Amino acid sequence: RQRWRADGRALRKLPVHVGLVVTEEEPSYADMASLVVWCMAVGISYVSVYDHNGIFKRNNSRLMDEILKQQQELLGLDCSKYSMEFANHGKTGEVLNCQSTLKVLSPEDGKADIVKAAQNFCQLVAQQQRTHSDLDVNMLDNLLSSTHGFPDPDLVLKFGPVDSTLGFLPWHIRLTEIISLPSHLNISYEDFFSALHHYAACEQRWGK
């Protein structure tokens, strides 16, 4: 446990928001829970979990149970020093005694959310509460409900052979570093930390 905290402090930069994107057909609750708890342990503030079939989101209580179990097993008595807020649709579900915020997302939180935001903006224009010139990046960010209160992901860890994020937050990952890993099944902490180390060493030019 001390190593995890030290690892987080040792990195030149630590992502604030990490997206964990599974493109494999058989998601593992235990392995995803390990990844979430490791994110908490190294000091990452926001975590998004996504699979393109929405399995984790439909079974979020099962995922939460596994996270609670591993939180106790991996962090032990230190668990009280961590916080995990389980949030979906902008509402708080269960709040654990910890300091990270988790959202479980599915494809409906991607393109469908952008369409809904556009419809809401058009309605505001029709009601003369807004004009078309009011639409900018910040306005659209505020209209998107699936990631309300979340910063854009700094890092996406994509698991599986598919060379695509398969609809994960297409608006929010314009400047996101994406690192591909072969699988989330039986992933080790060393694989996870190696990806964080790779991110910390990246020079982001912001399109320049």
From TrEMBL:
Record-linked SUPFAM superfamilies: Undecaprenyl diphosphate synthase
Enzyme class: transferase
Pathway assignment: Protein modification; protein glycosylation; Lipid metabolism
Pfam families given in the database record: Prenyltransf
UniProt EC number: 2.5.1.87
Main localization category: endoplasmic reticulum
Record keywords, A-Z: Angiogenesis, Developmental protein, Differentiation, Endoplasmic reticulum, Glycoprotein, Lipid metabolism, Magnesium, Membrane, Receptor, Transferase, Transmembrane, Transmembrane helix
GO biological process terms on file: angiogenesis; cell differentiation; lipid metabolic process; regulation of intracellular cholesterol transport
Keyword DNA-binding: no
Location relative to the cell: Endoplasmic reticulum membrane
Reaction it catalyzes: n isopentenyl diphosphate + (2E,6E)-farnesyl diphosphate = a di-trans,poly-cis-polyprenyl diphosphate + n diphosphate
GO MF annotation list: ditrans,polycis-polyprenyl diphosphate synthase [(2E,6E)-farnesyl diphosphate specific] activity
Membrane topology: Multi-pass membrane protein
Record-level GO cellular component terms: dehydrodolichyl diphosphate synthase complex; endoplasmic reticulum membrane
Cofactor names: Mg(2+)
Protein role: With DHDDS, forms the dehydrodolichyl diphosphate synthase (DDS) complex, an essential component of the dolichol monophosphate (Dol-P) biosynthetic machinery. Both subunits contribute to enzymatic activity, i.e. condensation of multiple copies of isopentenyl pyrophosphate (IPP) to farnesyl pyrophosphate (FPP) to produce dehydrodolichyl diphosphate (Dedol-PP), a precursor of dolichol phosphate which is utilized as a sugar carrier in protein glycosylation in the endoplasmic reticulum (ER). Synthesizes long-chain polyprenols, mostly of C95 and C100 chain length.
Self-association state and partner proteins as the record states: The active dehydrodolichyl diphosphate synthase complex is a heterotetramer composed of a dimer of heterodimer of DHDDS and NUS1. Interacts with NPC2.
Family the entry assigns: Belongs to the UPP synthase family.
Identification of the protein by name: Dehydrodolichyl diphosphate synthase complex subunit NUS1
Gene from which the chain derives: Nus1
